[in-house]
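Thread: sanity check for a docking pose with pyridoxal-5'-phosphate

Original post by kr_44:
Hi all, I'm comparing my docking run against an independent structure prediction. Below are the sequence and the ligand SMILES. Could someone generate the full complex and paste the structure tokens? I mainly care about where the ligand ends up relative to the chain.
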Amino acid sequence: MSAAPIVIPPELLPSDGRFGSGPSKVRTESVRALADVAGTYMGTSHRREGVRSVVARIREGMATLFGLPDGYEVLLGNGGSTAFWDAAAFGLVERQSTHMVIGEFSSKFAAVTRGAPHLDDPIVIETAPGLPPQMAGDAGNDVYAYPQNETSTGISVPLHRPASGNALAVVDATSAAGGIRVDPTAFDVYYFAPQKCFACDAGLWLACCSPAAVERIRRIAASGRWQPPSLDLRIALENSRLDQTYNTPALATLFLLADQVDWIAEHGGLEWAAARSDRSAHIVYEWADAHEYASPFVADPAYRSHVTATIDFDDRIDAQQISAVLRTNGVVDTEPYRKLGRNQLRIALFPAIEPDDVSTLTRAIDYVIERL
Ligand SMILES: *Cc1c(COP(=O)(O)O)cnc(C)c1O
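Reply from moderator J.T.:
Ran it for you. Here is the predicted complex with pyridoxal-5'-phosphate included:
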């Protein structure tokens, strides 16, 4: 890099410089709305109407957003998607789960069930990062787990059920929910955390559960298997029905989440949000295709994520330097997933991120590359 720092001119700076894949951009309007109600909302009991009505808005808003059929329920609890893996190992998996592993996050859930002493070792169907995922033909009758979007590599997986067997389809939608279309009849559990497409603070997990999943939760709980109460899905189910969490939640997270769900609904719902991410994805991938030294990490366009794009660079370009220069100019978190270790940029395209800002970002990257 040249000695003088590279200063990106203002017209090439996005209006908001946050492109991280989680935590991700929180809309300033949401934070302002929170500030407006803070005096009567923050620091009040989560067992009273003020907070419970926000949880009710979230649960109803999710049911509408995803078009959940009758009998599906929205559960929530503390601890994010990582805590949900632990809860699922206790309260959803009967004996042996099957996992599609295509990157860091999907491998972590498989590691949880492998480590659980009360479960058999899981069946793992693994594909190298970036390659088209291999889908299970038969996953038995227990749990089949896979991500809708593997955030660490930028691969999206079409929603599917195994061709045979009656396994519950348990979908990690942490970075997909709210930004990618979904057919609710294709899952039994669709779980996520709110700091990605839902553009708010972290710390919660949410799970849309089919009647079969609710039945499984009840059956395992009734079987007498010991479960830590904070990870017990039946306790979460009972509290969620009362628009509460088992223990104290982060009230700011709940408020920002309700605000984002309303924001998406006001603009036209999931189709609108997904179309916005589609537009951003088109901008980024078209930009990569137009540059000799850049290429989408995921070669097959059918699997390229429209919410977290990963762009590889050849030897002529040091992507780390690009991210570093962007960062000193206030454009942050374009680094690749740390453990992937590639010469790459990863750019979040969540619905809260303006497609125009994505377009400006590509021009800023061009500007930086010309000057490296
Ligand atoms: C971010 C992410 C997680 C982890 O979420 P936490 O809320 O940090 O536990 C799990 N799975 C996927 C696909 C993710 O993108």
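Residues 235 and 246 are 7 Å apart (CA to CA). Hope that helps with the comparison, let us know if your pose agrees.
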